[in-house]
Specification:
Blueprint lengths: L1 E2 L11 E4 L2 E8 L11 H17 L8 E8 L5 H11 L6 E6 L9 E8 L4
Parallel strand pairs: 4-5
Antiparallel strand pairs: 1-2, 2-3, 3-6, 4-6
Length: 121
């Protein structure tokens, strides 16, 4: 098992590689300063960007993603998430779970985690 190295103060790894699989911890819709990103599509994009940064720490890219889980504070974000999927992923697109939650840390509106298959592991 290989964990990513990071200055992240959290008690978990941003991403962990086990064999050729990468497991990415939930990434929030925050900017690089930890401030919640306003806007619907903007928040979805920020969460994907943070998730991709975490995935990169174990050598993965969005093209390697097999499964994503979206946690959102407003289930009506589903249509924007569908458009994001169409823009970011080619067929076959990753599997996805989409869940509404009561709240997320730092006032974020979106959190995304992922499982990816690393090509060079």
């Amino acid at each position: 098992m290989t964990a990513s190295t990071s200055a992240d103060p959290h008690p978990y790894s941003p991403a962990v590689a086990v064999g050729n699989l990468a497991f990415v911890s939930g990434a929030l819709s925050i900017d690089s300063d930890g401030i919640a990103v306003p806007g619907r599509a903007e928040a979805l994009d920020a969460a994907i960007d943070r998730m991709a940064e975490r995935l990169a720490t174990v050598g993965g890219t969005l093209a390697d993603v097999a499964k994503l889980t979206y946690f959102v504070t407003d289930v009506t974000l589903r249509e924007e998430a569908n458009r994001q999927f169409e823009r970011l992923f080619v067929h076959p697109r990753p599997a996805r779970t989409f869940l509404e939650v009561n709240a997320l840390p730092y006032g974020a509106t979106v959190e995304i985690d992922a499982i990816a298959s690393l090509p060079n592991a």
